[in-house]
Amino acid sequence: MAEASGITALTGPAGASRMPNPATGDTPVVRVYRKESAAALPAYATAGAAGADVEAFIVQDITLQPGQRAKIPTGIVLEIPAGWEAQVRPRSGLAIKHGVTILNAPGTIDSDYRGELEIILVNFGEEPYTIHNGDRIAQLVFAPAPQVNVEASKELACSGRGTGGFGSTGTDSLGSAGIGGRAAGTMS
Question: What is the pTM of this model?
Answer without folding.
Answer: 0.77
